[in-house]
Structures are given as structure tokens and as C-alpha cells.
Amino acid sequence: MHKILITGSSGRIGRALHWQLCQDYDVAGIDVAPSSATSRIVDIRNYEQLLRSFEGADTIFHSAALYAPHVGIASEKEFYDINVHATEKICRAAYPAIFQLVRKGKPFLLTVSHNKIKLALCFDIL
Hints:
Strand content: 25-35%
Low-confidence stretches: 96-106
Radius of gyration: 14 Å
Strand order of the largest sheet: 3-2-1-4-7-6-5
Largest sheet: 7 strands, mixed
CATH class: Alpha Beta
Number of domains: 1
Shape: globular
Structural class: alpha/beta
CATH topology: Rossmann fold
CATH architecture: 3-Layer(aba) Sandwich
Distance between the termini: 37 Å
Number of strands: 7
Number of helices: 3
């Protein structure tokens, strides 16, 4: 069965993806916060944890991010570390890869594929 991994699986988008996809696929979720959609507690800023989490995945949906509700709670550095550096680590963990940017209005969807592994990054462009 096709194996899917979702980052940010405790968030609104991650939970929605999980519940939609788990009907037809083997779905696992990673997040720093526990939830019914999260299989493993993983900090996406930790490259080694990402590599272990990606093992056996055919598709990866990256929905982990800090956004408006986190303003005033998380520092600017945390925003940058999670939204930029961690996303770079996720891409590196799937590297070497072929990148394809598909514009679907707002948000953008970035898909990365290599050796039958696909990574989808969903994010808004300000």
C-alpha cells in the first residue's frame, strides 16, 4: 500500500490531510504536538529525526508551519527556524530531487520527487 507521511499532522491542514488520505492510504503523521493524527513526536528542525521519519514513505506532505495564530507566542527566530530552515531540511532529506513548482493561485504547491518518493509543500505567498 502507498505510504504517506504528513508533517504538522496535529495542525488544521495536517489533520484534514490525514483524515482525507487515511481512507485509501497508509498514513503516518509527525508533529511536536500530540494528536489523534500524529503517529510520532518529531521536531522538523532535527534533520536526523526527519531522515528516520521519511524511511519507507512514498509521499510526504509538508504542512508544518508557524503562522498568524503564533504571532506573539513564538519569536521571529522560531518562525524563521521552522518556516525556512526546517523546510530546507525537509527538502534536503528528500535530496537529490527534481523540483517542480506548480502555481495554483494562492497557496503554492511545491512537489519534489526522487526514487519514487514525492514531497508536497503547501504554503501561502504573502
